[in-house]
Amino acid sequence: MRAKSPERVVIVGGGVTGWMTASYLKAALGDDVALTLVAPGETAAPPDETSLGDLAQFFDVLQRAEEDWMPACDATYKLAVRFQDFSRPRHHFYLPFEQMPQADGFPLTEWWLRMQPSGRFDRDCFVAAWLCDAQRSPRHTPGPTPGQDAARPPYGYHLDAQALTRYLTAYAVERGVHHLTDEVHDVRLDARGWIDHVMTARHGAVDGDLFIDCTGTRGLLLRRALKVPFVSYQDTLPGDSMVTLRVDADMKAHGIPPYTAITAQAAGWTYSIPLLTRIATGYVYAQEYCTPQEAERTLREAAGPEAAGAPATHTTLSFGRSLHAWKHNCVAVGAAAGRVQPLQATAISYVHHALQQLAPLVAPVAQAVRSGGPHTDLQEHYNTALAQELDAARDLSTLHYLGAARQDTQFWRDAQTCPLPDALAQAIERWRVRPPGTEHQPGPKGLPQHAHTSILLGTGALALPPSTALSPLDDRAARQEFAALKQRAQTLVKTLPTQYDYFSQISA
């Protein structure tokens, strides 16, 4: 009996998104699919990346441990996002990956609004805030105490996007992904309007059963060839430009903070991503309020003297999503499907989430394409999941502007009057009665359920009331929980190494 030939999947576009897609699908589906990736060779370095706390699952599918991939990608740990100056000068707060503790069935933040043990909700409610302030690693260095690392706080990663691309390219090609180093210059449709093949500059026609668009905001297949409309987020997310620097730095002198730092500026915000050997930094701003030259000057001043010789990269930004991420036999992953402002700096995690949705659907959809049968229900599942995640991420990003207490520049005054998405406007009305919870507003996948509460408490402009549901309850359990959390945090600060010491010791 003749063996069934594998489904043919063509990935168009390289970079982190393309090679994450190729690696994940090859690891998850093996020889059930024949994967071809069409992309030019390595281009200009992309901005460096950070992830949410669930990216470890991506490497679990690849069967790659941290010690295999982290050194190759200059990677460090990330416990939280630190937001600076959104409320007032020199004020900061953390959005940790750690889940919210509870007392008597209520989130600790609700008790905090009633009791406020200190002026810092993040240190009262989360261990991670203490570790971030002390620049601690979430992991112990290897030692003789068995199980000492078992209860570590959840974390994500900071990583060099260009190095990760090289790592995943080698991984995928070694396992049989066919890489055509080429440019796609045309997309040919069949009589139904489906993609029949793509035309490349040097290899001619490349055909397949399923085509995956990883071409970023160009949307070469989905938007340009299949004419899927684009739904813009620009009216609610101010900022249309970015300048970035890759700063070589003495990380022993700097230390390696276990967080991504986001700092409000006059016309937007800067970010800082600490890697093992350098710091990646950028400024997302609105050109209506700031010229590119002013933005670069602001970024260099924020980065300090070490940035003096670093070349700057200027790019324009557009935020939004495709109306449908999957049409006919074409599915988009990454920015081709949609892009939200990187206030959580988590685009790489959204690629992973899309692949988790996509992988189980690839084989049945490709079979349906071959046979001419329907697969609309599978498409709808993917489209709904991605649209909900991207819209939820947009709403959360909008809160950073709406909730910011600062009024010192026209940018921030105007940002707080941007039109709100309907779902967010309705949620805010509910939050005036009770702080946000899982029953009020779905959060982006991978972010903790307390994300909305933490942003609102930290930015400070929208006051949250103590919940009336707590009024008849004794606060003894909450007091015990606050005290236990503080004790655990102080113990971990004493026993965990700094990130710099951790990576120095394990590499020695």
| Protein structure class | alpha+beta
Number of strands: 24
Low-pLDDT stretches are: none
The outline comes out as: globular
**Beta-strand proportion:** 15-25%
Number of helices: 17
Specify the helix fraction band. Answer: 25-40%
Q: Report strand order across the widest sheet.
A: 6-5-17-18-19-16-20
Largest sheet: 7 strands, mixed
Average pLDDT confidence is 88
Radius of gyration: 23 Å
Cα separation of the termini: 56 Å
Your description of this structure?
The chain has 508 residues and is α+β, with helices and mostly antiparallel strands. The chain has 17 helices and 24 strands. The strands form six sheets. It has a seven-stranded mixed sheet with strand order 6-5-17-18-19-16-20, sandwiched between helices. It has a six-stranded mixed sheet with strand order 10-2-1-14-23-22. A hairpin with a 2-residue loop joins strand 7 and strand 8. Helix 6 (127-133) runs parallel beside helix 16 (476-495) and helix 11 (347-371) packs antiparallel against helix 12. The longest helix has 27 residues, at 376-402. The N and C termini lie far apart (56 Å). 50% of the residues are buried.
